[in-house]
Amino acid sequence: MKDNNKIKDVSMTTLGGVGEIGKNMWVLEIGDEMLIIDSGVKFPENDLLGIDLVIPDFDYVIKNKDKINGIVLTHGHLDHIGALPYLLKEINAPIYGTKLTLGLLEGNLKEHRLLKDTRLKVVNSGKKYQVGSFEVEFIRVNHSIADTCALAIHTPLGPIVYASDFKFDQTPIDGQVADFHKLAELGDSEEGVLALFSDSTNVEREGYTLSEKVVGETVEEIFRGARERIIVATFASNIHRVQQIVDAAFKYNRKIAFTGRSMINNVDIARRLGYLQVPDDMIVDIRDCSDLPDSKVTLLTTGSQGEPYAALTRMARGDHYHINIKKGDTVMISASAIPGNEKFVGQTINKLYRRGANVIYEDVSGVHVSGHASQEELKLMLNLVKPKYFVPVHGEYRHLYKHADLAEKNGIPKDNIYIADVGDKINFSEDKVSKAEKIQSGDVLIDGLGIGDVGNIVLRDRKLLSEDGIIIVVVTIDKHGNILVGPDIITRGFVYIRESEELIESATKRVERALKDCEENNVTEWSVLKDTIRKSLNNYIYQKIKRNPMILPVIMEV
Amino acid sequence: MKDNNKIKDVSMTTLGGVGEIGKNMWVLEIGDEMLIIDSGVKFPENDLLGIDLVIPDFDYVIKNKDKINGIVLTHGHLDHIGALPYLLKEINAPIYGTKLTLGLLEGNLKEHRLLKDTRLKVVNSGKKYQVGSFEVEFIRVNHSIADTCALAIHTPLGPIVYASDFKFDQTPIDGQVADFHKLAELGDSEEGVLALFSDSTNVEREGYTLSEKVVGETVEEIFRGARERIIVATFASNIHRVQQIVDAAFKYNRKIAFTGRSMINNVDIARRLGYLQVPDDMIVDIRDCSDLPDSKVTLLTTGSQGEPYAALTRMARGDHYHINIKKGDTVMISASAIPGNEKFVGQTINKLYRRGANVIYEDVSGVHVSGHASQEELKLMLNLVKPKYFVPVHGEYRHLYKHADLAEKNGIPKDNIYIADVGDKINFSEDKVSKAEKIQSGDVLIDGLGIGDVGNIVLRDRKLLSEDGIIIVVVTIDKHGNILVGPDIITRGFVYIRESEELIESATKRVERALKDCEENNVTEWSVLKDTIRKSLNNYIYQKIKRNPMILPVIMEV
């Protein structure tokens, strides 16, 4: 197999997804050929004020766009496909993924008016595809979205197995267990697996992740017990979860209404592609729910993360167009709070209780199961694939660290394990794994239609503005530097003017005096005047009420 | 006991602490006499931009200040005593609390220069005190701070038992188990307990909360295994936790350094008052740690919540003055993340790992135990006290709801349970509990030295500013409304100017054209000009980049 005379360089470069949760993207290179694996978004942390999305810095792939043979996708979650609309504005390459993955991507591309020019290639798991000069196998695994695959990509040094995200569900809803045989075959082959890239999300959890079927049992119990309306919130992309809720509704002779944009879209796509079975006559429009007896109503909604404008959050707040929560309603939040969302979810639960609903959530076992492998599954993956090298992916630093530790305890030599940082180009050779170089990489911030036009300075200003607001001081001067009008002080986000007239008045006097000093000393440079205004106000305001508003002097010369 | 001829009204009014976590404060009234129970702060939620603290609206007690007999305190946590410096600016009353509670309060009052004029009365648990016309018993319970008491306050209708916060620790560090006998005696008395107010924080947890001693075992194991420095972060007020770490350090022949302002203060107060035993020669200054072998060093630090400026967070970030985290360090975070802080704690852990530390945190059992009672303890409290009426306190709505449910299952009739909202004045009579009235109440926001000068308008502006920044448009006109200078556009927190010159230029042209239209139509009213500027920009900016910055027109007339 291996042609030792002219072995080509094999490298994997990460543009995101390590040391962070989100924006998963890797580039495989063999010699001069490139293959992109996934291209996801990251949701902004709290300190990224006003930012809508974060995508990878595409510099490296743009520079090398002629080398790109194609893009292969593991599954349809936004942290793996959400950056493609931005990437496809820069490069043009065929995209390979399973039917549901591409179905979801299509919806995304349509919104960006990019669908027409994109070459989408549907693949089947269990099959091998030629993507330019790359041979890629799509291997069925389980996850919280249907049609998820691990990848085996063949290189002159043996196949690389990329398994992010996955779990092993022994009793999956669609009956499709992971392709253990293929993974075992790769591990057993004479050539051996060169490297395994594996999901680290749940490395801190012992044992096995529960089967999706467990949720079905809880759902059924809830449906059996409920006498009035049942409202279930879950991730719109978790088609198997949706199916289980539909099945329970069917069994207990209830109709079902879908609400929330992404829920309606995903259900539509999944039904169209055959991933979700809902009899037409079961579905009612949310506006018609009130015509049915409460005992016949099921609502499936977005908002499981307490997102401020999602349907369930609106219901909890009492400003949903069609649904008023009332005593007797059973609300099931079939999801766990993503780190950072705990407060929002908690607030939603409190509000639902206040409106009289019976709320069933996380703390009840079986309301939700994770889509990521726990320790025993991670070990099983290692033992099936038996890779020479190991790279933990899809996790914050501590997850990668612990996954590396787990792999070492499972027999991978420490030197054969690589904990990557975003931007690392990792070289694989027959005798070692090492960093080849660091490429330009990082977060590109999306705000509205702007891509990358918000950076540190803008964010720093937003933070300043958010904490103590802004004081604007306007002065009109003549050509000789004499003050004609002002100084006028205008504030926003600083204090209630009504309560602070005195403060503003005395601050204005301060600035007047400081400017008069300048005048008397014949200081007319604008920069000095501005500095004088800034300093005199800064000190005064801080001393008076211990705040640091942004101070913006504006000088107009007539 | 009960004088049926002239029974006085008995009521409890909440100024905070129900339907929220924090700012616990109640007012007991018997006839015309008032007693204040606790007066705490709440830490601001994320949406309270720039706010430092939240305190109760004191309107009700200020209006009735002549009726106030005194203030009684249950324990020294800030959510029970932190608002006193603000309250004491408005009213003057003696304050009763145990030694440690008042010791911690003293520090707080000193910072506000209020200590001199305050009457502090040290009480002992197990004793009865006359506070004006009120008879108050302080009853020992366990909690995550030493010297915590429940209160029994005698009324003509029988005693009210106020138990927030508490747990029952059967093996407490100081050997002082809760005063079960007193609680039982109250429950057994012929008169009977009128009402129980009880801690709802952990009502969602089954079973018993683990004993503080469990943490000691984990701590010892860690000390036994560690070869180099040990750094422990915990809540500074958890003196028993601190004691256990000191004990382990002593046993393994290590010195100890304290870092972080509140840690140093609390250790100092606790040692001085006899609540914490640390041999003098064990303590080293943090600056001298580097002179010791790593195997002799223990550091006890603040920062268990990932607070941006706390000592541990600085170490993780690499900007602590004296301590650089290095390979071999063991860092133990002996606390659980308070809801909302999960992300910050996670970030700190990741950074510590990156610096090579071995981090031990929440997921390891026994690293932390809660200070609040779980279901079995809550039931025990109900069964000991056997109250006629029950009011769940100290919890978000869902906690109060579930605690009410638990009490009902424990035999309290539904009609005898009252779930309170902030501002409810609850009347107790021999045959029912009911709402007497709703008093003025709510959140007063503290920003810097300002008390209540930041309200909804200011917060709304800060939110707007934080999301898309501000565009300021300045125009100078003459007396006839002709434009002399401008329009000039200045932005902050909006976009990188360098990248968006074109946008700003074309926006300026837009405003120019709109103003010219006004000029041609002889429109000179400032309000119309401002509106014109606002609208022309708003639409243009949104259409161009889908953002909604605040737009602030400024007109100067020369």
UniProtKB/TrEMBL annotation, chains A, B:
Family statement drawn from the similarity comment of this UniProt entry: Belongs to the metallo-beta-lactamase superfamily. RNA-metabolizing metallo-beta-lactamase-like family. Bacterial RNase J subfamily.
One example GO MF annotation: RNA endonuclease activity
InterPro entries per the UniProt record, alphabetical: Metallo-B-lactamas, RibonucZ/Hydroxyglut_hydro, RMMBL, RNase_J, RNase_J_2, RNase_J_b_CASP, RNase_J_bac, RNase_J_C
Pfam families referenced in this protein's UniProt entry, alphabetically: Lactamase_B (PF00753), RMMBL (PF07521), RNase_J_b_CASP (PF22505), RNase_J_C (PF17770)
HAMAP family, A to Z: RNase_J_bact
A GO-annotated cellular component: cytoplasm
Function (record text): An RNase that has 5'-3' exonuclease and possibly endonuclease activity. Involved in maturation of rRNA and in some organisms also mRNA maturation and/or decay.
Entry binding sites for Ca(2+): G50, D52, D447
Protein name (Swiss-Prot/TrEMBL): Ribonuclease J
Residues annotated to bind Zn(2+) 2: D79
UniProt-annotated location(s): Cytoplasm
Cofactor(s) named in the record: Ca(2+); Zn(2+)
Catalytic residues (UniProt): D199, H372
